[in-house]
Amino acid sequence: MSDLNKLWKEISDKSALLDQAPLEREGRLQPSPFNLLRAIQTRNRLKVYLLYAYLIACVVLLFFLESNWESYSILGTMFLFGLVNLWLVLPAYLAMKRQNSLMSGSSLEVLKFYHGKLQTMIRRENLIGAIFAPFASMLGFLWAFIEKKGTAAGIFSDGRLLAIMLGMAVIITPLGAWMVVWMNRKAFGKYLDYLEENIAQLKEE
């Protein structure tokens, strides 16, 4: 039995959930104790790989797109956003990946560690999503205008177009911020809930 499996046996024994099938509670399936840590690691790894793919796509476009400096500036800004997002996510992923260092702690400490890392990562991503949403909408508007007209200068000399761009930013910002929160809740919500339940149970013992 691997160290990870041994750890989960200890957690399962203490939370009285060992060898139980995933439970359906309040209309949703709960992850089993055995695969919870592994599932969290897998989802974080997928998130990191998607960010790497996004950065690579930006670099490919920068090198192969025949355009002007304005298009390159927009792509550079998108690349910078990807780097910031990766900087927020990668530390938590690498910390969770270092399983050997976690095995020295008690089950309660491990659960608190994972819960804290997930909360921090999600909170930072939600914040950067809310901050970047208006810029993303304006960059998309500028990009479309550049591709059609060859430059975005006309937007800033036309009050109507400028108002349209700013209006789009106002409308899209809450939607974009909500989408980031919803995606994180969809991906990690049930795992956070499960960790909180087990932490509460272990504290009561």
Structural write-up:
Helices cover 82% and strands 2% of the residues. With 205 residues, the chain is mainly alpha-helical.
User: Helical stretch count?
Assistant: 7
Structural class of the helices, strands and pairings?
Answer: mainly alpha
Q: Order of SSEs, N→C?
A: HEEHHHHHH
Mean pLDDT: 75
The neighbouring-strand order within the major sheet is 1-2
Instruction: Name the overall outline.
Output: elongated
Tally the beta strands. Answer: 2
Distance between the termini: 26 Å
Instruction: Specify the helix fraction band.
Output: over 70%
State the major sheet.
2 strands, antiparallel
Structure, briefly:
This protein is 82% helix and 2% strand. The chain is built from seven helices and two strands, in the order αββαααααα.
Question: SSE layout and pairings?
Answer:
Blueprint: H1 3-15, E1 24-25, E2 28-29, H2 36-64, H3 69-97, H4 99-102, H5 107-149, H6 153-157, H7 159-204
Antiparallel strand pairs: 1-2
Helix pairs in contact: 2-3, 3-5, 5-7
